[in-house]
Structure to design on (607 residues):
């Protein structure tokens, strides 16, 4: 209740203040600018009333309009055309201000007339064009009936005087009507008051030098302190500076000196040209002040967001990165160095966090992120370290692909080893081999059956990997060394695996692979690469010595649906051929059209 009462008191005080200023300003302009006994050449009344109406509740409009109509009629009766035409002219003036306010509220309910480009443009259109133009039509005819001058001349003078005057006074009137004229920008501080005073003095001084002489064309000179006021004080600086420039220019004009008074045109045209000059510098200054205010708000928002992001980055366990268009690191958070075990990440490719073989996959993920900036790409890989292996999950999102953009990707990388191990532990019986962390035979058969069922349209390759003379390894070096070799091959399989290439451990020293949508040649390349890598690497024994191990691979390419047992039987036949050929090699077969293996209900049930 107290708050509502304070608002009502503030609204009443504001209305009284506006009404007082309205009466004084309209009386002065009518008295001093009605040359030849016709229309006033300067009119600020519409700006004052429309600014007030746009910032009060519509329920208060009738009372406010009645007060201003009486004041307008009084000023016109005392200082203008007399009591008889005062009432219709007052009604027309009130109508014009009401129209301007209604248009502003209807089409810019955000009331951001001084804060955004759209709001400012609509202020110009409503207050400087539509409102004065609509009122000028009946206004020109009404004045014609009073002074006998042609309707077109009266309508033109009405439109120019009201349009330019409203544009000139509206910004400052809107700021005051909001009741926050001293808190919009830096003026609310003592330093702000000092800057406003100094800039005001500079505006007046330069205005005197410009408008009280006509020897030199110095009309551009007031733009210097005006621009500085826009930069330092924003909208309030622009509005106050334009007002001071206007007062100085009008004072010189009516004193008969200066560049406007010395023009070789009729007096009315001189006055119109002066208003046009003042309205032009206003239209120059307010957009600049609006842009600077928006920039300052954006800068403050950016600084707050940057501080928050830095806080998160410094204390996050996730690696936070920004990359350029080439996928090279521009910024890395402190956690990045712990995950990557590198001292310098600047300029390094994102693939540095993963295995060397993962570079093409990382480039592919970056390309996908670039093509779909609204989506987050996820990459999860097992990374081989000197002291073991870890699982990393990378989330990648594209920022922009504009040529001028320095940072094109944001990336977060998280160590998900614990989560992965928990998943593996909880799913051992469901389909995970506990030693190698690869899928087990049950999981492999489920995938194999699904892919064999659509082999007619998506051919697949099935491979069996079997360690050569693995029993001798266990007998000579111990089972724990044999397990180490199996784990090593499991990590190789994890690095090679992809959505289309599935690996599993299907027996003691046997592994299996199924590759969908892959030619026999491509599948053979994958197998050959794994065979060669295993053969080239040495495994350390418990006593520090090294020994080599090899694998034989049987590969079958399937182009028609068949049962899993028949596909595995064919792959094992191919494996036996590889063994008989001397081991440590890849032997492949191609399933032809009309292949004898077909899935039957009995076989499917057996599987």
């Amino acid at each position: 209740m107290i708050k509502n009462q304070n608002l009502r008191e503030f609204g009443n005080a504001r209305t009284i203040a506006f009404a007082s200023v309205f009466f004084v300003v309209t009386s002065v302009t009518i008295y001093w600018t009605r040359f030849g006994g016709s229309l006033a050449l300067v009119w600020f009344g519409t700006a004052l009333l429309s600014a007030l109406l746009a910032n009060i509740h519509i329920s208060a409009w009738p009372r406010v309009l009645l007060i201003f109509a009486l004041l307008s009629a009084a000023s016109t009766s005392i200082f203008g055309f007399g009591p008889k035409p005062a009432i219709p002219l007052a009604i027309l003036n009130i109508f014009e201000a009401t129209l301007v306010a209604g248009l502003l509220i209807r089409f810019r309910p955000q009331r951001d007339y001084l804060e955004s480009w759209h709001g400012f443009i609509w202020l110009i259109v409503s207050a400087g064009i539509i409102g004065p133009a609509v009122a000028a039509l009946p206004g020109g005819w009404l004045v014609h009936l009073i002074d006998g001058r042609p309707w077109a001349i009266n309508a033109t003078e009405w439109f120019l005087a009201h349009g330019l005057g409203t544009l000139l006074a509206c910004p400052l009137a809107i700021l005051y009507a909001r009741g926050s004229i001293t808190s919009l920008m830096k003026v609310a501080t003592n330093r702000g008051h000092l800057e406003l005073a100094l800039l005001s003095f500079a505006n007046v001084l330069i205005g005197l030098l410009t408008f009280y002489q006509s020897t030199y064309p110095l009309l551009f000179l007031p733009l210097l302190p005006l621009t500085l006021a826009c930069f330092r004080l924003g909208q309030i600086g622009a509005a106050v500076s334009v007002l001071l420039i206007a007062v100085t220019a009008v004072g010189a004009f009516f004193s008969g000196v200066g560049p406007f008074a010395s023009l070789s045109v009729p007096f009315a045209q001189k006055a119109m040209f002066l208003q046009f000059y003042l309205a032009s510098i206003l239209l120059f200054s307010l957009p600049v002040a609006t842009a600077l205010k928006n920039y300052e708000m954006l800068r403050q928002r950016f600084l707050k967001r940057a501080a928050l992001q830095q806080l998160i980055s410094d204390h996050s366990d996730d690696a936070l990165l920004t990359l350029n268009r080439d996928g090279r690191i521009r910024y890395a958070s402190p956690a990045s160095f712990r995950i990557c075990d590198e001292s310098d990440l600047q300029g390094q490719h994102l693939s540095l966090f993963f295995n060397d073989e993962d570079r093409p996959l990382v480039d592919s993920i970056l390309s996908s992120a670039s093509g779909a900036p609204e989506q987050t790409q996820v990459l999860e890989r097992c990374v081989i370290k000197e002291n073991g292996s870890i699982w990393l999950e990378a989330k990648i999102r594209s920022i922009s692909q504009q040529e001028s953009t320095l940072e094109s990707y944001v990336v977060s990388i998280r160590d998900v080893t614990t989560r992965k191990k928990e998943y593996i532990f909880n799913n051992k019986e469901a389909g995970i081999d506990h030693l190698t962390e690869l899928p087990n035979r049950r999981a492999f058969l489920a995938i194999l059956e699904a892919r064999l069922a659509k082999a007619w349209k998506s051919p697949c390759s099935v491979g069996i990997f079997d360690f050569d003379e693995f029993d001798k390894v266990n007998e000579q070096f111990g089972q724990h060394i044999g397990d180490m070799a199996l784990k090593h091959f499991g990590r190789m399989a994890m690095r090679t695996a992809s959505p289309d290439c599935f690996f599993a451990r299907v027996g003691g020293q046997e592994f299996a692979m199924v590759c969908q949508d892959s030619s026999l040649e491509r599948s053979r390349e994958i197998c050959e690469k794994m065979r060669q890598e295993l053969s080239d690497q040495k495994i350390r024994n418990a006593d520090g010595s090294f020994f080599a191990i090899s694998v034989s691979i049987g590969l079958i390419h399937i182009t028609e649906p068949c049962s899993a047992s028949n596909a595995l039987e064919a792959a094992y036949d191919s494996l036996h051929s590889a063994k008989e050929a001397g081991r440590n090699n890849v032997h492949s077969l191609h399933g032809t059209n009309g292949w004898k293996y077909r899935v039957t209900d009995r076989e499917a049930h057996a599987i």
